């Protein structure tokens, strides 16, 4: 579909950057394109926006078809509108961040046959690097269209917001029962660097306990070795 576009017309697409934490690493979902252009290349999932729907409606419908996430976290990332970003014609894309907790994603990918492969994401001085669970290693220019730039923009947005918004909590499997160690793992995966445990816990408590949103429960996590860790609950996530 849309292998060739009418010249002189403007088309709008959406692309989804689906992120999760797996084994302490930031992961995203990619699939191989079946159609031209870039047939066989790895790409973000996306779709053309219909005349009778909004960009967000298109994203939600596509997500429901490909990966029916319960109450997904969606956030509009950026609109990519470079003139020559799509060789078929004049196409702009609005990209969305989608965050899925690890256990929920694991269950969905076991229950439903999906075209997705998980890739560990790393950014830094060497640029974007994606390491697939199938052994594939990619850099930004290996991807279809400008999807490498979309991924870098999304990760940078996430890194910039995690210290002053609730977005890091969106990766947790259970907002009513989590440890501060689990939350620290999320921050380390997103930021790509280790956090000092004492400083991290102090900062989180200062930000959330004073407002009454971070609540210490009377339960403990006894599944891991060593001393049981206290379980917390986050109220009124933003």
Give an overview in words.
It comes from Aristaeella lactis. This is 8-oxo-dGTP diphosphatase. With 238 residues, this protein is of the alpha+beta class. The protein has two domains: 11-160, Alpha-Beta Complex (Nucleoside Triphosphate Pyrophosphohydrolase), CATH 3.90.79; 173-234, Arc Repressor Mutant, subunit A, CATH 1.10.10.10. The protein has helices at residues 55-66, 102-111, 147-161, 180-191, 197-208; strands at 10-22, 25-32, 42-43, 46-48, 73-80, 90-99, 117-122, 129-132, 137-139, 214-221, 229-234. The strands form two sheets. Strands 1, 2, 3, 4, 5, 6, 7, 8 and 9 form a nine-stranded mixed beta sheet that branches. β10 and β11 (229-234) form a beta hairpin. The radius of gyration is 19 Å and the shape is elongated. It starts with 9 loop residues before the first strand and ends with a strand.
Please identify the structural class as seen in this structure: alpha+beta
Q: Tell me the β content.
A: 25-35%
Average pLDDT across residues?
94
Unreliable runs, pLDDT <50, ≥5 residues?
none
Count of DSSP E strands? 11
How would you characterize the largest beta sheet? 9 strands, mixed
DSSP summary: helix tally? 5
CATH top-level class of the largest domain: Alpha Beta
How many structural units, i.e. domains?
Answer: 2
SSE ordering: EEEEHEEHEEEHHHEE
CATH superfamily of the largest domain: Nucleoside Triphosphate Pyrophosphohydrolase
């Amino acid at each position: 579909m849309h292998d060739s576009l009418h010249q002189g017309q403007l088309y709008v697409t959406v692309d989804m950057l689906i992120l999760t934490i797996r084994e302490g690493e930031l992961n995203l979902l990619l699939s191989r394109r079946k159609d031209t252009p870039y047939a066989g290349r790895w790409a973000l999932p996306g779709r053309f926006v219909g005349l009778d729907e909004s960009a967000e409606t298109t994203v939600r419908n596509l997500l429901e078809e490909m990966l029916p996430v319960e109450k997904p976290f969606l956030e509009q990332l950026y609109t990519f509108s470079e003139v020559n970003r799509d060789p078929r014609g004049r196409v702009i894309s609005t990209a969305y961040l989608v965050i899925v907790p690890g256990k929920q994603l694991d269950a969905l990918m076991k229950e439903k046959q999906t075209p997705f492969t998980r890739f560990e994401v790393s950014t830094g001085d060497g640029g974007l690097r994606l390491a697939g669970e199938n052994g594939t290693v990619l850099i930004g220019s290996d991807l279809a269209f400008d999807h490498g730039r979309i991924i870098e923009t999304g990760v940078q947005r996430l890194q910039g917001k995690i210290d002053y918004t609730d977005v890091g909590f969106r990766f947790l499997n259970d907002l009513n029962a989590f440890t501060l160690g689990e939350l620290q793992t999320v921050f380390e995966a997103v930021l790509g660097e280790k956090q000092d445990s004492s400083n991290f816990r102090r900062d989180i408590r200062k930000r959330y306990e004073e407002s009454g949103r971070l609540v210490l429960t009377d339960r403990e996590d006894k599944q891991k070795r060593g001393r049981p860790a206290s379980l917390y609950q986050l109220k009124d996530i933003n």
